[in-house]
Fold this protein.
Amino acid sequence: MNNHYLKKVIRPFQSSFTELENKIADYLIQTTRNLATCTLDDLANEIGVSNSSLYKFVRKIGYNGYQDFRVSIATNQNTSTNPYANFFPNFQTIEKEDSPHIIAQKVLNANLYSLSNSLEYLDEEKLTHILESISHSKAFHFFGVGGSSITAYDSYHTFLRSKYWCNYISDTHLQLSVAHKYTKDDCIFLFSHSGLSSEILHVAKAIRETPAKIIVLTGNAASPLCKYADEVILVVTEEAIFRTEAMMSRISYITIMDILYVNLMYLDYDNNYQSLKQLRKTLSSRKILQTPKD
């Protein structure tokens, strides 16, 4: 029986694990033992690693020490996993012999599962805190590189409907060129699924020297990008052949940004509605008028 609570805790750090750390992670997720009752010596011996290696591992995944790890396990080990997990088969079950329609069903199920996981790392307290933090901004900026730039652009397009001034820059050189100009009224959303892109790290470092707020969306909790952020939103999914983790998580990123957008719109309903109304009016003038038929 998988330890779903520990899988949720471990997964965001997995891309930064060494071979030894992956060994520890696999054991902790797959074991049927009650880890809350295991001493450090017992568990380390059973996994086949040193006490110090196991202790460093639990610290790396966010615990203050081994005792904190045990208490957390005892408190959360019965936490339910995603309630939709049993309804959406794993994307990796796709076989070469599957028909096009079966593959279509499995891809859809994988995307539905990603959607159902969107709030896995964004609980009510964190969401409320982020909304309070960014709602006082006057301008939103959306930056990403590679595949993440697509999510940044989609978010920019969505937030244009709000009362906030919005900006999207795809070129890293230009992102750096304006980084020093941001003020406390600016909020910058940085997208990087790996959290390791040197370009976005340079941009984050430059922006951090200003009073602007930085919201990082990433799939890597151990990313150096996180240290520059005021808030970090984790987006974690499984990887499958022909579809990288970043591709499969894109729908989750877009969903999370939609959640932020709708919440912000309702926080100042009247002004945001007027902005949306004006945008629709402006865009309607671009539509081709159809002559009614006799």
About this structure: The radius of gyration is 22 Å. The chain is about 50% helix and 10% strand.
